[in-house]
Amino acid sequence: MMRPLPALAAEITAGLRTVRFGRPLYVYERLPSTNDIGRARAEAGMPEGTAVLAVGQTAGRGRRGRSWASPPGGLYLSVVLRPRLPVERWTLIGLAMAVGAASAAEAAAGLPVRVKWPNDLFIEERKVGGILIDTVGAYAVAGIGINAHVPAPQLPAGAISLGVDLVPFAAAVLGELERYYDLLMDGSDEVLRHWKARSATLGRPVVVSGAEDLEGIADDIDPDGALLVRTASGIRRVAAGDVSVRETGIGVM
Ligand code: BT5
Fold this sequence. Notes:
Layout: H1 6-14, E1 25-31, H2 34-43, E2 51-57, E3 75-81, H3 91-109, E4 114-116, E5 120-123, E6 126-136, E7 139-146, H4 166-185, H5 190-197, E8 205-210, E9 214-221, E10 227-231, E11 234-238, E12 241-245
Parallel strand pairs: 1-2
Antiparallel strand pairs: 2-3, 3-7, 4-5, 5-6, 6-7, 8-9, 8-12, 9-10, 10-11
Helix pairs in contact: 1-4, 3-4, 3-5
This protein binds biotinyl-5-AMP (BT5).
Biotinyl-5-AMP (BT5) binds next to helix 2, strand 3, strand 6 and strand 7.
């Protein structure tokens, strides 16, 4: 099950242009979830940037107990983070990872990739990737799932694959994740600016389920990454939850 693949790790590492992300990079044939191994590596004291990749996952996780379809051909990657940020701002980490992943996916596939709050990746109305941030004490494990090259029948309805080669793509994703993570840690507002520019959520009518359910127009993202929703009773701040963009009858997502 946990067969290491050092040759594949070496191939990806050869294309890495990072300082910390993917150093080291552990690659396995099959894992239940890369985030679980990422967590074990973090707990063992491995440095920020340590990454775990699996060719396939048998128990890939989404957020809130959902599952992530993980057949071979997709990118299943986890990165250990030790963020120097107050915990109430950790939503921004997910946004930074989403922007980085979207940037790499767009460059590789040559198609516009948009982000849906908090950190889904979409091509038009189809989901191409998602981010799962597990936070444990002083560290976080960022899990990135992107359909790099997965045959359509192996994906859930409404999903799409980029059709890109996994090896160079994995290296490129690690590069863009590091770039946006470092911008965030340097205090730059570039992450929010890029997130907003790629947003498929802002300005749209949305239904939110989280600590409370509400409906309104997705108005903006605040400096801590929370979604601001304009409702009949004023602006409401959503720090965590699920957002679906409502059909308006004119074919928006
Ligand atoms: C996410 O969850 O979008 C986060 C997915 C993170 C996966 C990575 S892979 C590496 C690391 N290790 C893990 O175990 N997880 C992370 P969420 O927003 O909850 O979306 C889950 C929903 O997306 C599912 O309920 C399906 O509707 C849909 N879905 C599942 N697999 C998909 C796929 N391969 N492509 C597109 N959509 C998918």
